[in-house]
Write a structure and sequence with these properties.
The protein has about 500 residues and is α/β, with parallel strands linked by helices. It is built from 18 helices and eleven strands. It has an eleven-stranded mixed beta sheet with strand order 1-3-2-4-6-5-10-11-9-7-8.
Length: about 500
């Protein structure tokens, strides 16, 4: 086993080595710190790396394990957190230069639960400013896709997806309002879950889309994802919107086949659209695998889901603007990235009567999505109709009416926003690569609080394919850029 193999191992594999004392938590932390030092000057997936703090926690974890106080499979495992999720004494910047720390001393419940399980905070991951997914310029460096730096790494929880994909950390917490976990998972070739709204406490997450924001994990495998979600899920008195429902042991629901599982393929979010040829071929291959596992796959039409995109812009964005304009935007207009401030300012102009009507219309979209689960156990869609775009094509700069249609309403959003509006769990799982070597994914959604079924489908599919075993060759993709930077 070499360092590269160890860096890309699943949490389960790393945990087995830690438990048997073949490696120590300090070995793993030092490995990731060295890789961050070598590669993150190109990738820009981290804002804050708390090296000495992580080493200290690793030594403590090692001592506990040596002395027989092993806490479980996350003990000694390094994790990152989107720099929108508060981590106590470690600053939370929101990728903004307005102030150095927005956390006010809070530690997010999800972070605390991971630390209680023995996981080690390695640092804070880069993101689109304030998590809005509209940044044009990046105050802490533009995040890059580790598979091909000429292509987008998607939006918002960007550093979380990059760092996991590039083997710079074992797992990371992201935040998903309309696709901010699932998008970076898709573009960077990892697994990303938006849990049911209320499944994970939002306490300590700086999030103002009150009816949609969620915290969830990004990992290299489905089993790892289920483990992290199981750890961070559950009721929290600090978050009155968190659910009191019991959290199942997700791995107990894994099966090698999908016999008896009924899957609905949503036309409006897949085959009913004009697809890039490589996406079309990938989807057909993924559906063939699911059918070979015993699942029944049928096309289903949900005609209202296309309205999820404008409805979210008319509801969640004004929710954010209601806080941001008063607290920060008026005072610090020039310090905001132009993309972020434009989106927030536009949302602030939505009249209350329009907002109220849009909230009612969102209920219609939600009801249509939920009605599908009367017949189907899970829904299958694409994550996008095209592969990850070239960086220059992915910038959300709107100059014309045509730009609005192409960049806003015919983008990844039509595949992710409907499940956000419906507040159901949804997961992006790697399902192929383009000829140019960038990842593609399918999305699996289930009824509220049925993450167990969602994970069952995703895990069976993952184990029947080889996509999760592929990892970016950083020496090939990043060394030219690193060498150029060193010589500059």
């Amino acid at each position: 086993m070499n360092d590269n193999q160890l860096a890309y191992m699943s949490i389960a594999e790393q945990a087995a080595l830690i438990r048997t004392k073949e490696i120590s938590p300090l070995d793993l932390v030092n490995l990731y710190l060295a890789r961050i030092e070598k590669w993150d000057g190109v990738l820009h997936s981290w804002i804050t790396v708390c090296a000495e703090r992580a080493r200290s926690q690793a030594r403590q974890a090692e001592s506990e394990i040596v002395n027989g106080r092993y806490r479980g499979p996350l003990h000694g495992i390094p994790f990152g957190a989107k720099d929108q999720i508060c981590t106590g004494e470690v600053p939370t910047t929101m990728a903004s230069i307005i102030q150095p720390d927005f956390s006010e001393g809070m530690t997010a419940t999800a972070v605390q639960k991971l630390q209680d399980a023995g996981a080690i905070l390695l640092g804070k991951n880069n993101l689109h400013e304030f998590g809005k997914g509209s940044s044009v310029n990046f105050h802490f460096g533009e995040p890059k896709n580790p598979w091909n730096t000429a292509h987008e790494p998607s939006h918002s929880s960007t550093g979380s997806g990059i760092s996991v994909a590039a083997g710079l950390v074992s797992t990371s917490l992201g935040e998903d309002t309309g696709g901010s976990i699932r998008g970076p998972a898709w573009a960077n070739g990892v697994v990303g879950t938006r849990p049911t709204f209320g499944r994970v406490s939002r306490y300590g997450g700086i999030m103002y889309a009150w009816t949609q924001d969620t915290i969830g994990p990004l990992t290299r495998t489905v089993a790892d994802n289920a483990l992290v979600l199981q750890t961070i899920a559950g009721h929290d008195a600090k978050d009155p919107l968190s659910s009191a429902r019991a959290v199942p042991e997700y791995a107990r629901h894994f099966t090698p086949d999908l016999k008896g599982v009924r899957l609905g393929l949503v036309r409006e979010m897949s085959v009913g659209q004009a697809l890039h040829p490589e996406v079309d071929a990938m989807l057909k291959a993924a559906l063939a695998v699911l059918r070979s596992l015993g699942a029944t796959v049928e096309e289903i039409s949900l005609p209202r889901v296309k309205y999820a995109v404008p409805l979210q812009f008319l509801t969640s964005d004004p929710d954010v603007a209601a806080v941001f304009v008063r607290k920060w935007l008026r005072k610090h207009w020039d310090k905001f990235d132009v993309g972020t401030r434009t989106r927030i300012a536009a949302a602030a102009l939505v009249p209350a009567t329009v907002y109220a009507r849009a909230m009612r219309a969102r209920a219609l979209v939600r009801n249509e999505v939920l009605s599908a689960f009367a017949k189907y156990d899970a829904l299958i869609t694409l994550m996008n109709f095209v592969p990850p775009l070239k960086l220059q094509d992915s910038v959300e700069k709107i100059d014309t009416r045509e730009d609005v249609a192409a960049r806003m309403f015919k983008s990844r959003r039509i595949c992710t926003y409907p499940f956000s509006v419906a507040n159901v769990p949804a997961l992006s799982v790697p399902s192929g690569f383009t000829a140019g070597g960038v990842p593609m994914s399918v999305q699996i959604a289930a009824k509220p609080f049925d993450e167990a079924l969602m994970y069952r489908v995703a895990h069976a599919y993952e184990q029947a394919t080889e996509w999760h075993r592929r990892h970016p060759d950083l020496e090939k993709t990043l060394e030219p850029s690193r060498a150029q930077m060193a010589g500059a």
